[in-house]
Design goal:
- This protein has 667 residues and is mainly beta.
- The chain folds into 6 domains: 27-104, Immunoglobulins (Immunoglobulin-like, Sandwich); 118-193, Immunoglobulin-like, CATH 2.60.40.10; 207-284, Immunoglobulins (Immunoglobulin-like), CATH 2.60.40; 296-381, Immunoglobulins (Immunoglobulin-like, Sandwich), CATH 2.60.40.10; 387-527, Elongation Factor Tu (Ef-tu), domain 3; 530-666, Jelly Rolls (Sandwich), CATH 2.60.120.
- The protein is elongated, with a radius of gyration of 58 Å.
């Protein structure tokens, strides 16, 4: 219809869909009987449907044609399997939808008995068992575990660990399989035992801690055991002398020397178990055989005896040698003596002796027990002086001496001696030494000393006089440096001298002549004949050790020689009284080999490095091993304490040794 020239759409009409023409399906589809291979189902027909028959399907496969009955038996099925059963209804207007039903046949077959049940691990308190997976017609759900009849429930895995068990006990293990339907197999059986509780092991490191002629002591480390060790049994030569003692030491006094004894030690744990095989130690008490006797040779001078000896042996080791003179010990050495002149092997010079006297000299070897070798005393006579004193002091230069009657019967009388004692006085130089090459800057060296000796010589004959003239004229060559030694009632002192002028000789009669010696001592100090020496050994590094020298005399600064042996790194040498410290160049070190050393001459301020001769045959300047500027020092009259310290050298054992030698000095 159109109004106002405009067309309107037709009205909307709703149309209902047609009702289904399929007949209704069966109702109440159900299982009425079930067996492992057969299932019976039933259903009810739909009400008022005019059903002509029913179709039956199993897992989508139709089972025969339509039937009018409302039951059906499925046979030939598989046990424990799930099937889909469907039933529909047939009517004149067609077939209904299928009505489904899930059906499972009963599973009544038990799984196979688990095989291979065995122990795969054990300790004193645990057992671990495992087995092979079991089989079943459907599926194995798990395994039941029992230990000595006690159930541990079901588990899915094929391994089981039992804890908290008793050591060394046998247990009955049972394992069965269960399937998803609850069917259980017969149990696999196993008799299994935990590990036994072993006794403690033998105490380790049984060792000697003290040994004498008539006793010894032993110690050992803690024994290992699963349980705490409470003590130790100690057996001595087959006799139990201690039971379950807590201490890990034992002493055995009152024994026989040079006799073998056997010690056995067993550990005891808190369960009372003892070591099966005890630790054993065979010990021999010490033998009192002394060291073998060194063979001694001696070379005598006027005031010295140089002793050399062969090496001694001992069953417990020679630790050193001692030199006795007339029954008094004058020197000890471990065999290699370290001196400022280098290592000396089994040789020593005895100084300060009287010329023409006889001495009893012995070299005793000493072992680790303090035992000495047999007496090997030799009688050694020093060389007599070739003159007889007729006055004091006695002046001596080389083979010539004044105030004496010499071997030719010539009397040498010293009538005037100047410059040796106090005339003319020796004055210090005005310039102070030190500064650029060291910290020591005292008054320094004194000026040279001029010494004049004048006198008369009286010979027994004209020929003896002429010979005496030749002897004094050749006492020193013009450039030769000799030693002037002066012996008075108090002491003997000496100085290094050379001729300052020609030897003056003037006849005075037929068998006498006047003589004059003019000598110059560049170093004006008057030194003692025998040196004062000491050494210090640092036992462990890092560490330090000190030595003490007591110097006599009137000279305010006494020179000395020092020698340092390794092993040591970054060493220091400290003069405690002055506080002066001489240091190594950083990183500088000396090895343990005593052929390597550093020598310091405090008088000349020279440093020499010594190395094995196959490396370099002569000492060479060693100033590069000393830090710049080195703190030079001099010794002082009285007590002087020198301390050596340093750091260890990698791979070297032992400690450094400092040796110092100086002479008492007078102005």
């Amino acid at each position: 219809m159109a109004r106002f020239g405009r067309a309107f759409p037709a009205p909307l009409r709703l149309v209902a869909p047609p009702l289904s023409t399929l007949p209704p399906g069966p109702v109440n589809l159900r299982v009425t009987a079930a067996a492992p291979t057969q299932v019976t189902v039933a259903w009810d027909p739909p009400p008022d449907a005019g059903v002509l028959g029913f179709g039956v399907w199993l897992d989508g496969v139709r089972q025969g044609g339509d039937q009018t009955g409302t039951t059906f038996v499925f046979s030939g099925l598989v046990e424990g399997r799930t099937y889909l059963v469907e039933v529909d209804a047939a009517a004149e207007q067609g077939r209904s939808d299928r009505v489904p039903l899930t059906v499972t046949t009963p599973d009544v077959t038990s799984p196979a008995v688990p095989e291979g049940l065995a122990v795969t691990g054990r300790t004193r308190t645990t057992l671990t068992v495992s087995w092979s997976p079991s089989s079943d017609n459907v599926a194995v759900a798990g395994y039941g575990i029992r230990l000595d009849g006690v159930s541990y429930g079901d588990q899915p895995g094929t391994t089981r660990t039992f804890t908290g068990l008793a050591a060394g006990r046998t247990y009955r293990v049972e394992v069965d399989a269960v399937d998803t339907s609850g069917n259980r197999s017969a149990a696999a059986l196993l008799e299994a035992g935990t590990a036994p509780d072993l006794p403690p092991g033998a105490p380790p490191n049984l060792r000697i801690t003290d040994l004498t002629y008539t006793s010894f002591a032993v110690a050992w480390d803690e024994a290992a055991d699963e349980d705490p060790v409470t003590g130790y049994d100690v057996e001595f030569d087959g006799t139990l002398v201690a039971t379950n003692q807590a201490a890990r030491i034992a002493s055995f006094p009152g024994l026989v020397e040079n006799t073998t004894y056997t010690v056995r030690v067993s550990a005891v744990d808190q369960l009372g178990q003892r070591t099966m095989s005890p630790a054993e130690l065979v010990v021999r008490t010490l033998d009192d055989t002394p060291p073998t006797t060194p063979e001694v040779t001696a070379a005598a001078g006027e005031e010295t005896i140089t002793v050399a000896w062969t090496a001694s042996t001992d069953d417990f080791g020679v630790v050193g040698y001692r030199i006795d003179v007339d029954g008094v010990a004058v020197h000890s050495t471990p065999g290699v003596d370290h001196t400022v002149d280098g290592p000396v092997t089994r040789r020593h010079t005895i100084t300060g002796l009287v010329a023409g006297a006889e001495y009893a000299v012995r070299v005793a070897a000493v072992d680790a027990l303090g035992q000495e070798s047999a007496d090997n005393t030799v009688m050694v006579a020093t060389t007599p002086t070739p003159f007889a004193p007729i006055d004091t002091p006695v002046y001596r230069v080389g083979a010539w001496a004044g105030n004496v009657r010499d071997a030719y019967g010539v009397d040498w009388v010293v009538e005037k001696a100047s410059g040796w004692a106090s005339t003319p006085p020796v004055r210090p130089r005005s310039a102070s030494l030190g500064g650029v090459d060291g910290a020591w800057a005292g008054a320094g060296q004194y000026g040279s000393r001029m010494i004049t000796l004048e006198g008369v010589a009286v010979a027994p004959s004209r020929a003896a006089m002429l010979a005496a003239k030749r002897r004094i004229s050749s006492v020193l060559e013009p450039r030769e440096v000799g030693t002037l030694r002066v012996e008075d009632a108090l002491r003997t002192r000496q100085a290094r001298v050379r001729l300052a002028d020609q030897v003056s000789v003037t006849d005075e009669g037929t068998v006498a002549f006047r003589w004059a010696l003019t000598l110059k001592a560049p170093d004006p100090r008057r030194y003692a004949v025998a040196p004062v020496s000491a050494s210090a050994v640092v036992p462990d590094l890092p560490g330090e050790a000190s030595l003490t020298l007591t110097m006599a005399g009137t000279y305010p600064q006494i020179p000395a020689r020092l020698r340092l042996y390794g092993p040591v790194r970054d060493w220091t040498i400290t003069h405690q009284e002055s506080g002066t410290v001489m240091r190594a160049m950083t990183g500088s070190s000396l090895p343990a080999d005593p052929r390597y050393s550093l020598s310091f001459d405090l008088a000349t301020r020279q440093v020499w490095a010594y190395v094995p001769p196959e490396i370099y045959p002569a000492p060479r300047p060693g100033r590069s091993a000393v830090a710049h500027l080195p703190a030079w020092f001099m010794l002082l009259p009285g007590v002087n304490t020198l301390t050596v310290a340093g750091q260890p050298v990698a791979g070297a054992s032992g400690g450094p040794r400092l040796v110092v030698e100086a002479y008492d000095a007078w102005v």
